[in-house]
Amino acid sequence: MKANLIFYKHQKELPIQLQNRSVCEFGEIFQDYDEHVDSIYVCYAQSDELQGEREWEKLGNICYTFVEKNHITHVEIDENNCEKINMPVFLEGFYKADYHFDRYLSSKDRKEVSLKLPKPFENISINAQKAAAAVHVARDICNEPANKLYPTRFADYLTQLFDLTDVEVEIIQSKDLKEKEFYAIETVGKGSEYAPCVAILTLKNSGEDPVALIGKGITFDSGGVNVKTGSAIAEMKMDLGGAAAVIGAMKLLADRNTACHVKAILPMAVNVSGANAYLPSDVIQYRDGTTVEVGNTDAEGRLVIADAILYAQQLGIDRMIDIATLTGNVGQALGLKTAAIYSNDIKLSTKLYKYGQKSGDSVWPMPLEKDYKRYLNSEVADISNMSNHPFAGSITAALFIEHFVKEGTKWIHIDMANTTKIFPSTKLEASGFGTKLLYELIVQREELWDD
Ligand code: BES
Ligand code: MG
Ligand code: ZN
């Protein structure tokens, strides 16, 4: 079925027979059959008071959802009022909503929706589709079950995904992890039949010094020997949300031919218990000599992120962003919509809020409260991976990672454990959080890192 999509602001912009409608508010949408064409009217009123440009994404989402529900397969946007709409963001919302994780369903009952735009918007549309495709990649990675996406498969998938792009993919296989001094990743991955590995993606389209993007890629986190309990454990197939965000961002940077130099480091492992699994009380010695007591095998994320940070610094990289589904505790602090952001440079962390607003991936700065570092004291090693205090779990995790950040390194850390799932859905559905944010942080890198 075909329909025209018409934006209106006031009742008087509707055809005369529809002007008696009593509601006329942002997002109101309805269908009308008029002069032999189906028309969908969507209200963009109050756009002046919109809280931010991401409201336009919501409008796009509303339109797609309506179209799909009403089995409309061909939509043509009417040029009237188009100039009043923030089309790049609207279209991103529309295309993003066109997502279904149905590859394991025997019968899929979905139809393609095509969207036709007035000529001047065609390029904008291609750009929006690229953003949506990148977010969908991140969502796919999180939605994949752990028996389908484990480290070596994940690595193969990346090789395929970036084939024919400017992104180079290098995989450090399990057998080489020790030789390359990725001691923590090797340790965390020991309990599983599925071997761990590290993926390194390089996009070098400019002569600048590289920025590192580090993403936690735990393809399943059972907690290991400190096993998790309860039904929510299935969610831990999404413990690679950080890696997914980095991959999405790399894809978008590549697809939009962004001139930049980015190195992504993705530690991948399955954190499960088993005969060879690492144990509470184990001591890990890192490449720089730092020793860590494993206070809890479920605090595995910080262990592998530290490995990647040391590696990036060894490569001489001095600007880095890590993103990880690190602590359940971050949700206690910020709820399920906003991720926590930390930096060893306070000016940086306060700057980041606006990029969150711009990208639609909401973040809020949190303090690296030095006085809490004592909670990570260990009697047998330099530091413990487990806090001995019940509060501030996201902060102590960030402090643990900061322990590995050398002077002179500019570092941003994002704890996104609470935002991997779509807000406010209660289903186990991935959001693709972080893709747009990391993309934005790379695009705006000059302004971002400038002191
Ligand atoms: N992957 C989890 C964090 C997580 C929790 C992500 C809930 C998504 C939803 C992480 O590895 C973890 O287990 N963290 C522990 C840390 C604790 C043992 C110090 C946690 O948050 O309980
Ligand atoms: Mg864990
Ligand atoms: Zn985890």
TrEMBL record:
Gene3D superfamilies reported in the protein's UniProt record: Leucine Aminopeptidase, subunit E, domain 1, Zn peptidases
UniProt keyword Hydrolase present: yes
Domain Cytosol aminopeptidase, first and last residues per copy: 296-303
One Gene Ontology molecular-function label: aminopeptidase activity
Record keyword Kinase present: no
Keyword terms of this UniProt record: Aminopeptidase, Hydrolase, Protease
Family: Belongs to the peptidase M17 family.
Protein function: Presumably involved in the processing and regular turnover of intracellular proteins. Catalyzes the removal of unsubstituted N-terminal amino acids from various peptides.
Name used for this protein in its record: Probable cytosol aminopeptidase
Species, as recorded: Oceanobacillus jeddahense
